[in-house]
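Weekly sync, protein design subgroup
Attendees: M.S., D.O., the rotation student, P.L. (late)

Item 1: inverse folding check
M.S. brought a backbone from last month's batch and wanted to see whether the design step gives back something sensible before we order anything. D.O. pointed out we never logged the input encoding, so this time it goes straight into the notes. Structure tokens as presented (347 positions):
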């Protein structure tokens, strides 16, 4: 059996820089037409000039004859100005602004400390420029249980934000809970949406501890209970336009994952399409896969659908145990396991 899909886009991708960028970008370019590229480098991409320069670095790292289009983002800080948002829109290469609550995840130490107190003029300018806000939806209060941080963020920050700025386009990224699903579904369609990762569709928090501590299944937001995984699967396979593909593929060198204080992030770019197909097949919803992977995201961002195609063939294949790059090794999601759907051709 084969499925022909309009070439998907990845609406949440980490490409890093340097040696890792050179090694991982081809995996995304092979499967996706475009990708929203995260700005949490060191130093972060906080200006339009930096975003343009980073885009050039990505383009130089692409394989020959690749048509992959990196869509750039700015890293929101307490000091971002409305003027920078105007410049970003004029650039033609910056498509969104990313909110990291300070300390929430990898390289988020420069993130926002007071969204309403420091960033409201910027958010208002984003409304005027029709510039989406991409949200890492977790509070960082150490008193809040790590499994509750998404829910608390919705109640304390996201719901008040949507009420105060109802015309602001918001993407709640990598949703992980039933609470997030309900929140997104309660908002005005076309203004609030969500990206969903393969890991949060396929794994619950047991995957962190099965057979011993599993550092390569550690990501932020952390995996949740099975009831939440099932709610997310039901949401994306329902055909709702509010949810679309965002892998949150996040490569880290093996030694930085397998250490006393391991990095958060799962590298899934080589297997993402196969895993999304697995989810939709198991839900009896393969007829809704293409909308999730290829239609809903462009519609939310006001962009045309891709004109090329990719084929998924029902053919078992083994995920490599690792990927080598100049400075080390990256372990992919489902390393060494057999998957049933193989992305094979561009037509």
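Designed sequence read out in the meeting:
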């Amino acid at each position: 059996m084969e499925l022909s899909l309009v070439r998907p886009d990845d609406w949440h991708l980490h490409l890093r820089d340097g040696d890792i960028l050179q090694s991982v970008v081809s995996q995304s370019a092979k499967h996706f037409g475009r990708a929203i590229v995260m700005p949490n480098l060191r130093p972060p991409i906080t200006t339009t000039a930096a975003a343009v320069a980073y885009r050039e670095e990505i383009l130089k790292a692409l394989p020959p004859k690749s048509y992959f289009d990196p869509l750039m983002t700015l890293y929101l800080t307490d000091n971002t100005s409305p003027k920078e948002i105007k410049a970003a829109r004029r650039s033609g290469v910056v498509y969104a602004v990313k909110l990291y609550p300070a300390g929430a995840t990898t390289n988020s130490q420069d993130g926002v400390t007071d969204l309403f107190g420091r960033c409201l003029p910027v958010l208002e300018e984003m409304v005027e420029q029709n510039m989406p806000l991409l949200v890492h939806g977790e509070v960082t209060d150490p008193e809040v249980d790590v499994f509750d941080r998404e829910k608390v963020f919705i109640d304390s920050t996201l719901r008040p934000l949507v009420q105060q700025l109802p015309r602001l386009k918001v993407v709640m990224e990598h949703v992980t809970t039933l609470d997030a699903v309900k929140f997104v579904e309660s908002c005005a369609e076309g203004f609030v949406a969500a990206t969903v990762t393969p890991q949060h569709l396929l794994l619950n928090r047991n995957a962190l501890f099965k057979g011993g501590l599993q550092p390569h299944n550690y990501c932020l937001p952390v995996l949740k209970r099975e009831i939440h995984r099932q709610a997310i699967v039901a949401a994306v396979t329902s055909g709702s336009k509010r949810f679309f593909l965002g892998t949150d593929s996040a490569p880290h060198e093996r030694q930085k994952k397998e250490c006393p204080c391991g990095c958060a992030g799962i590298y899934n770019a080589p297997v993402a399409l196969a895993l999304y197909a697995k989810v939709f097949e198991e839900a009896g919803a393969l007829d809704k896969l293409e909308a999730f992977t290829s239609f809903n995201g462009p519609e939310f961002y006001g962009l045309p659908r891709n004109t090329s195609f990719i084929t998924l063939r029902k053919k078992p294949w083994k995920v490599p145990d690792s990927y080598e790059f100049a400075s080390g090794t990256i372990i992919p999601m489902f390393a060494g396991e057999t998957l049933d759907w193989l992305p094979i051709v561009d037509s």
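Discussion: The mean pLDDT is 96. The first strand starts at residue 2 and ends at 6.
Action: P.L. to compare against the previous round before Friday.
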